[in-house]
Amino acid sequence: ALKVETIIDLDTLYDRAFNVLKEAVHNGSKNFGLATGGTMLPLYERIRNSELDFTQCESVNLDEYVGLPKAHPESYISFMKQQLFNEKPFKKSNLPNGEAQDPHEEAARYEALLQKMKLDFQLLGIGENGHIGFNEPGTAFDSETHVVELEESTRIANARFFNSLDEVPTKAITMGISSIMRAEQILLIAVGEKKRTALEALLKGEVTEEIPVTILKKHPNVTVLTDLVI
Ligand code: F6R
């Protein structure tokens, strides 16, 4: 069941997001699935400035670009260090290695790691096209961690973080839909008009692989925080 909370004021919305996460920590969640992207910035800021302690917790990130050096400021490992890990280290943090010689082998390694650990909590943003992680429209619901070809629209949406569209990687490694669905609890944050179509599909549409986020209707414990009135 989806628990949808519409909160127009963004400061209030992100305070609420922080509290959902804090409650999970206090209730004993140990393994956290994390996301990158603009949506997460105000949440990570709140975590950085909080008393929360993750030194007994483990994190796994949803995705990473293929072929971008780890030291590149827009690699997701760099993003996570800047936004969270430098200030709030976990006992162990895992991301797909975007520099692996063989990205497919790396995806298999990451999936094996995910199969071994139960994710207590998964943070999700949403793509304008309804993607979660980098599972683009048409991805099988039973997909595991895999290498994806990024959609042109996704690369354009992310080009704002790079000097030009050419610099945006064309591939990524992402947790699959089934990997995401195994998490005990999910917090989805959808903020801004650009996310309206995708959110509308989740709240009003049918479950379809053409809009990956719609699978969340089948998950037993999803909180959706949004500033959009649908
Ligand atoms: C990020 C991720 C993506 C983003 C989505 C929204 O790790 O997996 O699914 O959550 O693309 O991105 P923003 O927040 O930049 O709009």
Structure explained in plain terms:
- With 230 residues, the chain is α/β, with parallel strands linked by helices.
- The protein has a domain at 24-180: Rossmann fold, CATH 3.40.50.
- The chain contains seven helices and ten strands.
- It has helices at 10-26, 41-48, 76-85, 103-116, 152-158, 177-181, 196-204, and strands at residues 2-6, 31-34, 58-61, 63-65, 92-94, 121-124, 146-149, 171-174, 185-190, 222-226.
- Strands 1-10-9-6-2-3-5 form a seven-stranded parallel sheet, with helices on both faces. Strands 4-8-7 form a three-stranded antiparallel sheet.
- The two termini are 17 Å apart.
- The mean pLDDT is 97.
- Bound molecules: fructose -6-phosphate (F6R).
- Residues 35-39, 62-63, 125-127, 131-134 line the site of fructose -6-phosphate.
- InterPro entries: Glc/Gal-6P_isomerase, Glucosamine6P_isomerase, NagB/RpiA_transferase-like.
- One of its GO terms (biological process) is N-acetylneuraminate catabolic process.
- One of its GO terms (molecular function) is glucosamine-6-phosphate deaminase activity.
- One of its GO terms (cellular component) is cytoplasm.
Order of helices and strands: EHEHEEHEHEEHEHEHE
The count of strands amounts to 10
Question: Which fold name is given in CATH as the topology of the domain at 24-180?
Answer: Rossmann fold
General shape: globular
Computed Rg: 16 Å
Average pLDDT rating: 97
